Amino acid sequence: MPAVLLSDSLDSEPLPDLALSFLLYPQVRNWLCVVQHSFHPHIQDEVTKLREAIAKESWDQKGKFPPTLKPLLSSLAIRLDEYDDHFFNLMPTLFPYNKFTMSKLIKRTVFQDHIALLTERQDALLVELAAQAKEGFAKAEEEWNPACLHGTNARKNFASRGRCTHLSRTRRARRAIDD
Questions:
Q1: 66-111 per-position pLDDT tens digit
Q2: Of these four, 18, 48, 94, 176, which has the most CB atoms within 10 Å of its CB?
């Protein structure tokens, strides 16, 4: 994408203050613009459904959030793992509230669902871990039996001779090195 020069845009027609601030201060773009297309396609569909539901609601009483929108809002981002700052920046463009109010409302609304989802994921992972542990235990037991038998034979050998043969070889090797 070619770089936009300030002189190119000023020659053709005067820019509004907001567009001029986008050119002069690129960080303003992050503050004010939230592009809906940057979200996952499923979220884009949900956002359009939410926009339609918001248009149907009456916003005369701003102090009370419409209870019919809470389920749509809570299911919007949690299930699709898009519950972050970018999501919170989009919400004030949809609702007549600022970012702080929307983030506080969403976090309070979504908390129980989010905890339930995390618990559900944790339970599924624990079941998977238990299955892997059972498979690994059978393999470890197969490897352990010969080692255990070797240890039993070494103990019997030590008891019958009064010493363990592999230890005496090690001691002889150390003595040879020391001499």
A1: 888 888 888 876 765 666 777 788 888 888 888 888 888 888 888 8
A2: 94
**H runs (alpha helix) in 38-98:** 41-56, 70-77, 85-94
How crowded is residue 45: how many other Cβ atoms within 10 Å of its Cβ?
11
**How open is the CA angle 17-23-25, to the nearest 5 degrees?**
90
Two tokens, residue 69: 């929108």
Give me the amino acid identity at 72: L
Which pair of structure tokens corresponds to residue 45? 């569909």
Tokens of 21: 């601030």
Question: pTM for this structure?
Answer: 0.48
128-152 pLDDT, tens digit per residue, is: 999 988 888 888 777 776 666 665 5
Backbone CA torsion sign across 38, 43, 48, 50 = negative
Element (H, E) at 36: none
The closest of 42, 36, 112 to 70, measured between CA atoms, is 112
